[in-house]
Amino acid sequence: MKKVILICSILLTAVISTSFANGNGDNRNGIMSSFKEEFANAQVTKWENYEDYIKITFVSNEQILFAYYSKNAELLAVSRNILSNQLPINLLKSLKKNFSGYWINELFEIDANEETSYYVSLENSDKTVVLRGQAINGWQVYHIEKKIVE
């Protein structure tokens, strides 16, 4: 879970830095108004305030989702955890073909700037590999970490 949070933080920092001019105030009312407009029937379960963004965990259509807002109430991204069978077919086939000796630790979908990306953390006995994928472009290596054998 820490890896996913780290990946999301890195991704969101990149998205945030290119998506808006930095605001310093906590615009909770503006963000909630924007959230209710975007996700009318959603139920907020958690609100997390970070230095550059707000993360709202919510339930919509019986699914847990995460919305990321700038301090000035701009929706930056929406993400959700998914199962491997929810991946686009070409990404799933590529995982099975190229990473058959790995197991999936984490898998999530993120929609930012009208673009959907997938992140998967794969592990074997030697290393952890994080891939970023898009249905059109396939998988790219996002991060590799070798395990320390003691």
Return the average pLDDT rounded to an integer: 85
Major pleated sheet: 8 strands, antiparallel
End-to-end CA span? 23 Å
What's the helix count? 3
Using the alpha-carbon principal axes, give the shape.
elongated
The tally of strands reads: 8
Order of helices and strands: HHEEEEHEEEE
Poorly predicted ranges (pLDDT <50, ≥5 residues)?
4-24
The structural class is alpha+beta
Rg is 17 Å
What is the level-2 CATH architecture name of the largest domain? Answer: Roll
**Briefly, what CATH class of the largest domain?**
Alpha Beta
* Helix coverage percent: 25-40%
**CATH fold type of the largest domain:** Nuclear Transport Factor 2, Chain: A
With strands numbered from the N-terminus, the spatial order across the biggest sheet is: 1-2-3-4-5-6-7-8
The number of domains is 2
What percentage of amino acids are in beta strands? 35-45%
What assembly state would you assign to the polypeptide chains in this entry?
single chain
Would you mind describing this structure in some detail?
- The protein has 150 residues and is α+β, with helices and mostly antiparallel strands.
- The chain folds into two domains: 2-78, Nuclear Transport Factor 2, Chain: A (Roll), CATH 3.10.450; 84-146, Nuclear Transport Factor 2, Chain: A.
- It is 26% helix and 44% strand.
- The chain contains three helices and eight strands.
- It has helices at 2-19, 28-38, 89-98, and strands at residues 43-49, 53-60, 63-70, 75-81, 103-112, 115-123, 127-134, 138-146.
- An eight-stranded antiparallel β-sheet has the order 1-2-3-4-5-6-7-8.
- A hairpin with a 4-residue loop joins strand 3 (63-70) and strand 4.
- The protein is elongated.
- Residues 4-24 have low confidence and may be disordered.
